[in-house]
Amino acid sequence: MHPQIASFFDKVTGTITYVVYDEPGGQAAVIDPVLDYDPKAGRTSTVSAQQVVDYLRAQGLHLEWIIETHAHADHLSAAHFIKQQLGGKIAIGEHIRTVQGVFKKIFNLGEDLSVDGRQFDYLFKEGERFRIGKLDAEVLFVPGHTPADMAYKVGDAVFVGDTLFMPDVGTARCDFPGGDAHAMYRSIRKLLSLPDETRLFMCHDYPPAGREPAWETSVAEQRRSNIHVHDGVTEEQFVAMRQARDATLDMPVLILPAIQVNIRAGEMPPPEANGVSYFKIPINAL
To answer: Which of 45, 132, 188, 268 has the fewest CB atoms in 10 Å of its CB?
Structure first.
């Protein structure tokens, strides 16, 4: 059974949120939902997430899963908000524990953060199979961007997270804590070993001048024309390119607030005595 897929592109962060479902009135999953955040004012809003909620309601869908491909550094997750509105289980890969451990130290979070993944309702394992209503789904462990990235194969579609971008953009960076360009190359080749006609859905698009945002491609197209990792590019060539390129990149604008929310499954840090939640900004730590 082929999945039904609705896409929601966030222009501010270049993120695509997906609703994946079996049929109208059936069962659904949301993948990588975005919580709007204004870093100048320190204020959140749910305009983007509400569009997803409204779509699910309009289609009469029952939300089973709210799935993260990884703990994002470029946007805050709206998983907690969507669960409040519609229910569903918030899920991520089991290696989120590693990421929590790294950032607990960086942010000096102490007892404010458990590093066993308990903030999430479910932790996926490599190769695990699960269902979205009538749809069969499979979990693929694809580390490299972070040590915890997962991709999700649903029917003939794979939601690749931060591994591949559109062919004219290339691949995701590997210089965050725990990132590894060698692991990324192997993860990408794992994805590109799937049948040529497999549809690949990006988590982000940063289109070059003159092209509208796009987020669906195929294994065949990536193997033929991805500017970083097309067929014939060796692991050593990829790693050299990736490391040189990553050394020129600025940190994402929202990495410091985003990570503090996303390792908590979309919840804000605990309020302090005055009832206000605060983000911590480590100085010279990244």
So the answer is: 45
Q: With cut-offs at 50, 70 and 90, classify the pLDDT of residue 285.
A: confident
In the chain, the N- to C-terminal Cα span, in Å, equals 45
Residues paired with residue 141 on neighbouring β-strands, in sequence order: 150
CATH number of the domain to which 238 belongs? 3.60.15.10
pLDDT tens sequence across 89-129: 999 999 999 999 999 999 999 888 999 999 999 999 999 99
Domain containing 205: what range?
A: 4-251
Q: Strands, DSSP E only, in the chain? A: 4-10, 15-21, 27-31, 34-38, 43-45, 62-67, 76-77, 89-93, 122-124, 129-132, 135-141, 150-154, 157-159, 199-201, 216-218
